[in-house]
Amino acid sequence: MHIDPSLVEWSRAQFALTALYHWLFVPLTLGLTFIVAIMETIYVKTGNEWWKKTTRFWMGLLAINFAIGLATGIIMEFEFGTNWSNYSWIVGDIFGAPLAIEGLMAFFMESTFFAVMFFGWDKVSKRMHLLSTWLVAIGSNLSALWILVANGWMQHPVGMRFNPDTARNEMVDFWAVLFNPNAYSKFLHTISGGYVLASLFVISISAWYLLRKRNIQFAKRSIMVAASFGLIVSLFNVTTGDDSARHVAQDQPMKLAAMEGLYQGKSGAEIVTFGILNPSKKVGDKQEPFLVKVAIPDGLSLLSYHRVDAYVPGIRELVYGSKEHGIPSVAEKMKRGKEAVAALTAYKAAKKAGDTAKMEAAKKRFEANSTYLGYGYLKTPLQAVPSVPITFYAFHTMVGLGTWFVLLFIVILYFTMTNTLERHRKWLWAALFSLPLGYVAQESGWITAEVGRQPWAIQDMLPVGMATSNIVTSPVMITFWLFAILFTALLIAEVKIMTTQIKLGPVELKEDSHV
Amino acid sequence: MEYTDAILWYASWPVLIYIAYRFVLLNMKHHAKMERLEEYDQQCGGAVEPKACEKF
Question: Residue A464 domain-assigned?
Fold first, then answer.
């Protein structure tokens, strides 16, 4: 099968564009639903109308975000069919299951109760409304669960077998897919990242009110809720990030090496906390990988394997192999992959000819090499290396900002609890400007996960070049620009509607009602 | 396969939400006290009519 390289690039660009835009809206929904549910619970417990109005204000902003997130999400699912039909054919039996559960269970639950939550304030009882709000929060997060189970499977495919008769992967163990270590670590890290962003959203807007010296009590109470929530979830986010990195070390060592700019593997590998990569560095040459770096000795070994002397392979060993550490080279894997591809072709030919003996022989040859099937489609060993600068900088941006958010939550919560927040205007400005940083951290996380997995659509199994639809490039190119315009228009619309709502503010609130 | 780790990690999600919710409630109580104190300070900090401070 010949696929035009420009088609692959445009398909990748279109999916990346959709995913990046989609991810501007989703994490806020994941977290803000819980913050709103907590605020409404306080209202139901205390009976204080003040909390009802506060809940309704934040719920209004949530509704705007929810609607636009939905539009981008639906487009993404269609792209699997339009631009990635080979991918859908080869792994649809596995990938389709979590997506179907997401659509049937979580998405409908979320959407149904969203209507009750948003329009049912005076139509259902207080408790029914509260239940609806919690179900929206749980439903939206369960949607994320199934999507991330599917994504976790792409990072570490388990619970399936390749059927040479249909040339498709079939699910043989649903539980292995659901309980895939990459699935749960990705799910928890992603949703807790969404909670951090939502906390920043509430704190940042509230900080703006405090800076403008308006809606003071509303802003302080909202910050109290969001900073408390944010501190707990950001600490959890760090824990899940650590767990996620350990799974990357085990299942995607090339991604880990790119995340850390680790060209030369070693025992007691250091972790780079800050670094500027050497742009002229090539795999296998003698140049230093960094122009400047600040590193913690043994840190990477400790974080990846929980041992200071653990060996962490670098890009060089992963490409050229290391007999000492039992790492096969990409060239060896490509050789075996090509064996698997040839065996599969021979199997199909024997089947067509009705030669069962040849079929059996070809099947055995295929099974002996099938682990490296994906490598059979690579053209050069260096194709197995993802973009080191993008992966490295995206990862370090995410980690750096994540650390900043923990500090911000601690400081803001301390000032709130000591009732001194209004006096610390620099911190209010810092909180305000941390909102865009929250989005940068979110996008950086996804760039790390997805660019770091390249060249694979499914890790070690299916390169992206083999996953696209066999179509001409021009429709993908045209729709890329159409989506770019549409998504940008949606984003502008969301920002405009939100800023209008924020400027109006929670006008009905009286500043005198105790909890 | 061994799924204990996965089950425990998944179970940590509702636990996280519960802990975060309890932490909010705990801080809310303290914050409410701070608000009352602030109001008291503003209204009763100086020499004012004793009646104005009765609600505190």
Answer: yes
